[in-house]
Amino acid sequence: MQNGLKTTSLTHLSLRAAKFQSQNSDQQRALRDKALERVIRSPTLNILKRVREISNHGIEGLTTGGATDFFLYQFDGKMNRETLDRFCELDDIDFSFAVKRWSNHPDFVLSELCKRLLNRQLLKIHLQAEPFNEKEVQEKLIAAAHQLNISPKDAEYFVFTGEANNTMYKTEDERINILFKDGMVKDISAIDNPLIHQTISAPVKKFYICSLN
Predict the structure, then answer these.
(1) Alpha helix (H) ranges present in 70-203?
(2) How far is 30 from 166, CA to CA, in rounded Å?
(3) Which residue would you say has higher pLDDT here, 170 or 176?
(4) 144: closest CA among 99, 51, 210, 208?
(5) What is the pTM of this model?
(6) Which candidate in 114, 116, 119, 125 could, as Cys together with 103 as Cys, close a disulfide (CB 3.0–4.6 Å)?
């Protein structure tokens, strides 16, 4: 151990690389977890996006009487002492109350988004190495619009695409030092070994699509 960093001998390089290769399934799980995290966040973001959208069209019944009202209807994007104080007042209870209130709103898209979040009905997610073609995305949009009896534009709240990236070895997260026979210590990313670089340094990107089914 040197400077609090993990150190290993050069003779273990191949084993280390093989271990990283064997962790490919772990990396796939990490990518899926990242995509799933976005799926979990997306209902929240889509709910707020929908509230903003319909409020701009004069739809009423959206205020909650809580701290969320300021940021949804009055916040101008400028940070000052008042804004900071209002932000500090926000917590999960404010948003939970707002979602429960909006779940009974006459706007179908908003109420459906809120009900799905409250009932833990997350969107289905599919991962693949290549971007999804526009035809497939449009088919899912049309299917969602038909299933929910809404317009294809509103169906975009329930069908959308994105990408997830993951790198096995990030120097800002961890450091693996290699101890050479001459006593020199180098970071594993500085080792001139194609297998090492290809295995641990190259980011992996996956594309995902979220839809009702």
Answers:
(1) 81-89, 92-102, 108-118, 134-148, 152-155, 194-196
(2) 7
(3) 176
(4) 210
(5) 0.66
(6) 114
* Backbone phi and psi for residue 179, each to the nearest 5 degrees, phi listed first: -95, 115
Mean pLDDT of the chain: 77
- Kindly tell me if the per-residue pLDDT of 54 is higher than 70: yes
Q: How far apart are the C-alpha atoms of 65 and 67, rounded to whole Å?
A: 7
* Residue 165 bridge partners (DSSP): 205
Q: Does pLDDT of 18 surpass 50?
A: no
Q: Which residue has the higher pLDDT, 199 or 203?
A: 203
Burial class (CB in 10 A: 0-12, 13-18, 19+), 76: exposed
Can you name the residues that pair with 209 across neighbouring β-strands?
A: 126, 161
Burial of 36 (0-12, 13-18, 19+ CB in 10 A): middle
Is the pLDDT higher at 191 or at 110?
110
Start-to-end Cα distance in the chain: 51
Tokens, residue 156: 């975009």
- Which residue is associated with the tokens 């088919």? 139
